[in-house]
Amino acid sequence: MQLSLPSPPSPPPATSRSSSPCLxxxxxxxxxxxxSSMNPLDGDEGWHSAGNDLSGSGSGEPxxxxxxxxxxxxxxxxxxxxxxxxxxxxxxxxxxxxRRFCDLRAAVPTxxxxxxxxxxxxxxxxxxxxxxxxxxxxxxxxxxxxxxxxVTTAAAAATHSFGLGLLQEKLGLEVRMxxxxxxxxxxxxxxxxxHAPAHLMLALRSLDLQVQHACxxxxxGMTVQDAVVDVPAGLRDExxxxxxxxxxxxxxx
Length: 253
Hints:
This protein is of the alpha+beta class. The protein has helices spanning 15-19, 21-37, 44-59, 86-107, 116-161, 163-169, 196-206, 238-252; strands spanning 172-178, 183-191, 211-219, 222-230. Helix 4 runs parallel beside helix 5, helix 5 (116-161) packs across helix 8 and helix 7 packs across helix 8 (238-252). The radius of gyration is 56 Å and the shape is elongated.
């Protein structure tokens, strides 16, 4: 009985290596690189990475552009409380606005109509009136300050230089402010000098004191003059008004 043995494998042809050794080395290197990149032990990731490298290197297309940034209002930070829907937020905003309009309605004294547009117009007009009033009061305060300074200077001068003349001419001036009115009652007693009422009227005119009532009489050689005059804001003090009148009487006499 005879057994047949398998024939040994035939060796690879030696012509390829002998004819071009450089070509054989490059083929072996390329084979090793390909087999290393496509190692089946790495699983599917190896095959996919190899395919991506080949496709990316061979296509030559630019990488995709990044997505554009979103414009507009960014959402605010979330609170720990329950979220409010848009309808509920709008309702709260309207309630708050209505409360503000009610407060504005209570602050404005006169309102032409009971709508929001008329209320805003009346509020703007009222604010303009208040601003004008403030400017007027500031101007009056400045005038009063200037008048007070002038009266103080005049009082010092009159007290210093007019004391002797008062004793010689027996001049007596009484000033009394009228309660509740911006007016003052004056009584000037002088000797029977010439044109005593004219001197008093000139002094009142120089101080811009409007005369409401005036009376002149002569008793026992003395001239008595009574007058009620309107007093501006800067002279509503009995001492200041008396000093200013004495100074003006000295200049006119």
